[in-house]
User: Which sequence fits this backbone?
């Protein structure tokens, strides 16, 4: 994506059929399109080639430990669901990728670095929370002393067609962390879908020159005030329809206070350390390295794989694990997301997408854990004052 | 997923994640399970320069990588020296290296000991077990510029006499008049005639000016915690205490997440920390 300032004067109305022309333009410009696709009953991000690949008339129901999609025959909307388990992370930072291989030839060794990804990726239908997540992983991988070459290359030349959320899910809380439901830039193009039995259109906003270029030749109309108002009304309503809320006041201090002062037993007993939350999180960035050799022992390959702080050997040092209990691992995870991240990267590590709540098999809810922590700290403080008296 | 991001034919040296190959020039056994290797780059160049306290990621062919602090003299840049204890799969593989073997090296990474800041001060160096390895470069640097420092004290504790590292050097250092070296072991075996007990017991027995002292500690966290309690009793201000921390590390450069201790990346913000920065964290279990 280009780093230009969004040109907000360019707002259009586009009909569903005309989107096909836009997709064609994106493909012609040499991009591989990654967009929402219905797969195994879930909305996944996958390679798409045309408008026909998008799920039509799908709605989703998300609650803690619950994810269901529903197909409606009469519904022809394209984006009436929210985020599924996949985020763009898995394309700019794949779950497994080879870093290099080393060959042993006549006693000499030679390292051959894996060439960096050169594919131009166009992300279609990316939600504001995931845009925010990309901005965060940009800081993690590109903003520090050491940068990650693979991620940097994967992020270069991205084209982003974002979609604003008019139907937030049951586990969404982007308004609490200020990332949605309307994208505030960082896109080339952005759609807001207005769908009812009476009419169906999209408000199309261009964010960059590249975005404007991409809609040339595509049938659009300037957006009338009435139509803009319709879309705005939906987005305003969406703000009030978040399934969850995260209390962010004084959050960092709260988490640090809670690290040692209160008991984490309850959530520790619930947590299975299954790593689901970290696998679906669009900002979790931990990795491990795998080394394999061929049978003759002449070639060894080094692969980087996603890892999780919930894995037992994640903190392994000689003699044992630093965090051997689930409660310590959960405490580490939530502390990193909501407090440590702020110190490390100047931003929360949470974008309010709700994936960790939906995909937790036992329904641990990060927003409820914050409430619970607050209560535990208050109780502890009350006990301490009572003792003093 | 792999075919989505398709590699091109172009091969380029890139990223922090690719090691530089080194040849093993010598391998010396220090103790039953600890050895020192000397390395030179296979490409014919010089090893990367380092500051005392920094570490490298060492790669054993097909087995994996481990963070190991540099134990050599920063002023002798021709050879890269590491002292390693055999405790896991990678370090065991490294122990089986022979002269002429090749290994991968990435680094150096991490923060150094505050050697310059300590100038003019008395210096207390406390090491436990293999913790002496990352502190040896400090001793080399100080001894090469001895007049810049006040009293210099080395307190070193190991489990038993047979686990003492760098015996010959310890003997030389003990014979110096400008260095106070005290050694203790947890369990004595004949013919040991030295101290028995934990390293903290040595602290009240050495002299330094608490207001003008810098202390550097490396060893098991529990040893560092108790040593710090003892040093604080003698009056050294907290901000003059420095500790070297250890965590699991995969990348060494702040990208893999493994080494986090609270909000700190031990590989990048450390391993050497001013004590006030890690004080709270060190006292929380399973941090």
Assistant:
């Amino acid at each position: 994506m280009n780093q230009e300032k969004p040109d907000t004067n360019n707002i259009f109305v586009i009909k569903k059929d005309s989107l096909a022309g836009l997709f064609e333009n994106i493909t012609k410009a040499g991009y591989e399109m990654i967009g929402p696709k219905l797969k195994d009953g879930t909305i996944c991000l996958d390679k798409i080639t045309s408008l026909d690949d998008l799920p039509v008339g799908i709605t989703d129901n998300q609650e803690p430990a619950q994810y269901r999609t529903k197909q409606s025959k009469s519904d022809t909307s394209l984006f009436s669901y929210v985020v599924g388990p996949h985020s763009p992370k898995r394309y700019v930072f794949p779950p497994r990728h080879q870093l290099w291989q080393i060959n042993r030839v006549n006693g000499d060794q030679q390292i051959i670095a894996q060439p960096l990804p050169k594919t131009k990726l166009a992300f279609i239908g990316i939600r504001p929370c995931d845009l925010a997540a990309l901005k965060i992983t940009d800081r993690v991988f590109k903003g520090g002393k050491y940068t990650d070459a693979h991620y940097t290359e994967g992020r270069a030349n991205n084209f982003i067609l974002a979609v604003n959320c008019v139907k937030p899910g049951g586990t969404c809380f982007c308004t609490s962390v200020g990332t949605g439901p309307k994208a505030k830039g960082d896109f080339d193009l952005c759609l807001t879908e207005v769908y009812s039995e009476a009419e169906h259109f999209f408000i199309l906003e261009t964010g960059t020159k590249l975005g404007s270029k991409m809609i040339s030749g595509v049938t659009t109309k300037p957006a009338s005030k009435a139509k803009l108002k319709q879309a705005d009304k939906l987005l305003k309503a969406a703000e009030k329809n978040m399934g969850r809320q995260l209390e962010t006041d004084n959050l960092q201090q709260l988490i640090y206070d809670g690290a040692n002062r209160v008991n984490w037993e309850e959530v520790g007993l619930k947590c299975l350390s299954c790593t689901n939350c970290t696998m679906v999180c669009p900002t979790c960035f931990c990795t491990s390295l795998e080394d394999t050799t061929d049978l003759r022992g002449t070639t060894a390959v080094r692969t980087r794989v996603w890892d999780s702080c919930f894995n037992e050997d994640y903190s392994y040092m000689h003699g044992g694990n630093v965090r051997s209990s689930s409660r310590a691992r959960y405490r580490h995870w939530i502390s990193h997301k909501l407090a440590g991240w702020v110190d490390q990267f100047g931003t929360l590590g949470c974008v309010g997408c709700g994936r960790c709540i939906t995909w937790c098999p036992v329904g641990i809810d990060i927003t409820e854990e914050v409430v619970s922590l607050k209560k535990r700290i208050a109780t502890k403080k009350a006990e301490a004052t009572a003792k003093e008296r | 997923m792999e075919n989505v991001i398709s590699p091109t034919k172009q091969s380029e040296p890139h990223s922090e994640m690719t090691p530089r190959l080194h040849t093993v020039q010598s391998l010396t056994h220090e103790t039953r399970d600890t050895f020192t290797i000397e390395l030179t780059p296979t490409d014919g160049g010089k090893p990367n320069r380092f500051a005392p306290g920094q570490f490298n990621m060492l790669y054993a062919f097909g087995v994996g990588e481990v963070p190991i602090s540099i134990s050599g003299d920063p002023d002798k840049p021709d050879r890269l020296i590491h002292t390693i204890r055999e405790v896991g799969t990678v370090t065991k593989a490294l122990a089986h290296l022979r002269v002429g073997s090749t290994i991968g090296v990435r680094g150096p990474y991490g923060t150094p000991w505050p050697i310059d800041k300590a100038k003019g001060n008395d210096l207390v160096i406390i090491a436990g077990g293999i913790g002496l390895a990352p502190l040896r470069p400090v001793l080399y640097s100080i001894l090469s510029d001895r007049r810049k420092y006040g009293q210099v004290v080395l307190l070193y504790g190991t489990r038993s006499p047979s686990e003492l590292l760098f015996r010959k050097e310890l003997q030389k250092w003990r014979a110096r008049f400008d260095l106070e070296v005290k050694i203790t072991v947890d369990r004595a075996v004949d013919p040991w005639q030295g101290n028995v007990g934990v390293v903290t017991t040595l602290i009240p027995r050495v002299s330094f000016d608490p207001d003008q002292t810098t202390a550097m500690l490396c060893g098991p966290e529990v040893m560092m915690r108790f040593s710090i309690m003892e040093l604080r009793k003698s009056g050294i201000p907290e901000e003059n205490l420095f500790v070297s921390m250890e965590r699991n590390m995969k990348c060494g450069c702040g990208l893999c997440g493994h080494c986090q201790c609270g909000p700190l990346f031990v590989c990048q913000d450390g391993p050497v920390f001013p004590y006030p920065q890690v004080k709270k964290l060190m006292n929380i279990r399973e941090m």
